Amino acid sequence: MKAELVKRPRRLRLNQNIRDMVRETSLNVKDLIYPYFVVEGENVKEEIEAMPKVFHFSIDKLVKDVKETYELGIPAILLFGIPSSKDEVGSQAYASSGIVQRAVRAIKEAIPSMIVITDVCLCEYTSHGHCGVVESGYVDNDKTLELIAKTALSHAKAGADMVAPSDMMDGRVGCIRQILDSEGYVTVPIMAYSAKYASGFYGPFREAAQSAPQFGDRRSYQMDPANSDEALREIALDIEEGADIVMVKPALAYLDIIRRAKDSFKVPLATYNVSGEYSMIKAAALKGWLDEKVVVLESLTSMKRAGADMIITYFAKDAAKWLTTR
């Protein structure tokens, strides 16, 4: 016997009950937000090829699925809309009869307690696929702000519980806060995509949202993946302009940014476990190369450990089932 081995960390790993008692990070169903894609039509539930088990829903099918999501204990959803027609200025994004606006009304009527968060951007609605007004091949920041604010207001009028601007235009949080307050929606929070990187992990989403740019890329407004300090500046600006929740997107390749943000700002912090992160795990799991449940829960726990208070993830429904049965 080696008497000098006084410190044995393995004592606290002896069995599951002890491991649970000393666990430093807890992943809970209430931490999860499930994204949905809503399309025009009726009786539509079509699987997205690049994202197995994720679907395009028409409003009637969407409401039924959201009910099931709510019954799993997931408290919130994030809604993306795909319109039947697009134009240069994304007018369906802020139309009172737009696809998202009608979907919000239907969901809130059927499941009033479900928190409905709406993505506020123009990329799904513009014929060119960019997140704002394009002039001479360039996305005009200030001309885009008015349309982003109008979109957020139309979502609030439809009954959205929270709006989430993802366009990365300078000053958009302040413009949204101003118009919401002036129209009497002072209690509607803003979840800002504050540190949104120009990432290669968005590929499957662009198929799902039909929002790939028709020319160029989004690097003139989304952040350089090499930058960390810039993320803190962006988050600070959004908080100053009135953001209630800030977000880091993507998640897995940016855990260091999540940690820096959490250490620097004492505000609620979200992260988005994006489509590419989802599809990579799904593809490997379908091949039998990894244990999907183990890897998903490990990945989501890493985001909580890094400092995220809430996680937007396409794994939310599966994770909710796993978390309540283990």
Mean pLDDT: 94
Shape type: globular
User: Can you count the helices?
Assistant: 11
How many individual β-strands? 12
What would you say the CATH architecture is?
A: Alpha-Beta Barrel
Helix content: 25-40%
Q: For this structure, what is the CATH class?
A: Alpha Beta
Elements, N to C (H/E): HEEEHEHEEEHEHEHHEHEHHEH
- Sheet having the most strands: 10 strands, mixed
Strand content range? 15-25%
Structural class per helix/strand content? alpha/beta
CATH homologous superfamily name?
Aldolase class I
Give Rg in angstroms.
Answer: 20 Å
Distance between the termini: 37 Å
What does this structure look like?
Mg(2+) binds at residue 234. Homooctamer. Helix content is 39%, strand content 19%. With 326 residues, it is α/β, with parallel strands linked by helices. The protein has one domain: TIM Barrel (Alpha-Beta Barrel). The strands form two sheets. Strands 1, 2, 3, 4, 5, 8, 9, 10, 11 and 12 form a ten-stranded mixed β-sheet that branches. The chain has a two-stranded antiparallel sheet with strand order 6-7. Helix 2 packs across helix 3 (99-110), helix 4 (141-158) crosses helix 5 (172-182) and helix 8 (255-264) packs parallel to helix 10. It is globular. The mean pLDDT is 94.
